[in-house]
Design a protein that fits this description.
This protein has helices at residues 21-47, 49-71, 81-113, 116-146, 154-184, 191-203, 209-225, 231-253, 265-302, 313-319, 322-336, 338-359, 366-382, 395-418. With 422 residues, the protein is mostly helical. It folds into two domains: 11-298, no CATH class; 305-391, no CATH class.
Length: 422
């Protein structure tokens, strides 16, 4: 994906969703899916009230950090909350309701065309991804149909795809958690819910549906944005991205390395890394590339401003990457306290929004964001820290990174040990 990954934001094309016919079609589908899921939830609560309540609580809490992380991926032009909610709802209400019966039907087909043994061992790897990745990708397509003006970069496609995948992952994990309770056959017990949360949520959530759908969403974003390329090329890239999501999902579900790495915590960790690390690294590289290209584009708009009160050369460099933006906030905190760090964050947000407004064809609403930048600049000057530049990595930050890494490894080890390496 080396072609254009950003198109100028066009504010003139932003219209109310209720005026878009496709919105009502999507809303009708969401309502139908919501009714289906409500009926299923009612059955769960009737049979296993405590287990269902716990699964809803655990996976809802798990969704929060994922949501915050995904929403922060596109720093310069953040996606409207209503569209993020719509993407999440598509994954949780539509893609899930389609995939549950669709996956069962396709597994039955595998058993008939192949053999019951093939369906038992490879059914989940073949049927699940084939239905689920198509259903989730259609959620990104739905966003494009109802709000095309909001998809003007590959990174936008990644964000919406990840949100669809997150909604699907949370809904599916809740279904699996309650299903594990039913399978245990010991009544309304909580232990199967906790085991499912550790395995499917805590351990598998990093490189599961959110990741797969982000990859597919990148392809849809490329299809929409890179108009200088021919349609066959763009379609080919989009199909390749969706195929990559499907292949990653197949690898994740495949019954590979079940006994090949032995038993125990290290064996389970090895399987997770072998299956999950390649797609994780791929999407991280893709996100980094798309973010850098988008940052270069919008920072280039800011660089045309002659007024150092709006942006300085040092701030332009800091805005180019998330790590440098974070470094600028840490430097402000070290020199002038948390108030300065908060002001730097607001300044960076205002500068990012100003860059988006400068990229618009009319560029008619820059005055308010220029005023917001000057306001935060005044706050920083009063605090004695007038410029939001990145600083060197301090020993404190290195120590915090080491401690965080150690704690994360310890938590992962405890989770794997709690599952008994099985």
């Amino acid at each position: 994906m080396t072609a254009s990954v950003v198109r100028p934001a066009d504010g003139s094309r932003e219209v109310a969703l209720v005026r878009v016919p496709a919105f009502w079609v999507v809303l009708a589908v969401l309502v139908a899916g919501g009714l289906w899921m409500a009926r299923l939830a009612g059955e769960f609560f009737t049979s296993y009230p405590k287990a269902t309540a716990l699964s809803l609580l655990l996976f809802a809490l798990l969704a929060v950090p994922f949501w915050l992380f995904v929403a922060e991926l596109d720093f310069f032009e953040r996606e409207p909350t209503r569209l993020l909610v719509l993407a999440f709802a598509w994954g949780g209400l539509v893609a899930t309701t389609v995939s549950i019966p669709g996956g069962v039907a396709l597994e039955d087909l595998v058993a008939k065309l192949g053999s019951p043994g093939l369906a038992a061992s490879w059914g989940a790897a073949l049927a699940g991804p084939s239905v689920e990745e198509i259903a989730k990708t259609l959620g990104v397509v739905a966003i494009v149909l109802i709000a095309r003006a909001q998809v003007n970069s590959v990174l936008d496609g990644v964000v919406y795809g990840a949100m669809v995948g997150l909604g699907f992952q949370i809904a599916e994990d809740i279904v699996f958690a309650v299903g594990a309770v039913a399978l245990a056959g010991q009544g309304d017990q909580l232990q199967p819910v906790i085991a499912t949360f550790l395995l499917r949520g805590f351990l598998g959530g990093i490189w599961s549906h959110t990741l797969f759908s982000a990859l597919a969403g990148a392809g849809i974003g490329y299809l929409v944005v890179s108009r200088e390329r021919g349609r066959p090329h763009r379609m080919g890239v989009a199909v390749l991205a969706v195929f990559g999501a499907w292949a990653s999902h197949v690898l994740w579900n495949a019954p590979l390395f079940v006994d090949g790495l032995g038993n125990g915590v290290l064996a389970l960790l090895g399987v997770l890394l072998i299956k999950g690390l390649p797609p994780l690294l791929l999407i991280l590289l893709l996100v980094r590339h798309a973010h850098d290209r988008e940052a270069d584009y919008y920072v280039g708009r800011l660089a045309t401003l002659p007024d150092p009160a709006l942006v300085t050369p040092g701030e332009l460099e800091a805005l180019r990457s998330g790590s440098r933006r974070a470094s600028a906030r840490r430097l402000a905190a070290d020199r002038a306290g948390r108030t300065a760090a908060a002001a730097v964050r607001r300044l960076q947000r205002a500068q990012a929004r100003l860059a988006v407004e400068l990229s618009r064809a009319d560029a008619g609403s820059t005055a308010s964001w220029e005023a917001a930048v000057r306001e935060q600049r005044a706050v920083l000057r009063q605090l004695g820290h007038a410029e939001a530049v990145a600083g060197r990595v301090s020993w404190r930050h290195r120590a915090e990174t080491v401690v965080t890494t150690v704690v994360a490894i310890a938590v992962l080890w405890v989770a794997l040990s709690a599952l008994g390496g099985a």
